[in-house]
Write a structure and sequence with these properties.
single chain; alpha/beta; 4-stranded parallel β-sheet; 3 helices; 6 strands; 28% helix
Length: 97
């Protein structure tokens, strides 16, 4: 879970479950850090480094949103989006979103 450090507990915080699909661990780390800066929302981020791992992990629909890298090495982020079948909101991007 990603939560803002040194912030008093807020009983009205929203929790958003985010899947981050990116083969670049550095990009994942930057995106996860940026998510910690949002007020009144706690993000639970899960990282998938490959399309196959993402497709398997996204299958249960346990996420509110997915951020999917277009270029996953030999795989395509579009394939991940198609395979997930519109279970939740997805953003497809390249490089740092």
């Amino acid at each position: 879970m990603i939560a803002m450090p040194d912030q008093p507990p807020d009983t009205h915080q929203t929790v958003c479950r985010v899947a981050i699909v990116d083969d670049d661990r550095g990009d994942y780390a930057i995106i996860a850090r940026l998510l910690t800066q949002a007020p009144r929302t706690t993000y639970e981020a899960t990282h998938y480094a490959t399309g196959d791992a993402a497709i398997a992990g996204l299958a249960d629909g346990a996420f509110d949103v997915a951020l999917v890298d277009e270029n996953l090495g030999l795989e395509s982020g579009r394939d991940v989006v198609r395979a997930a079948g519109g279970q939740f909101s997805m953003t497809l991007g390249s490089g740092l979103f």
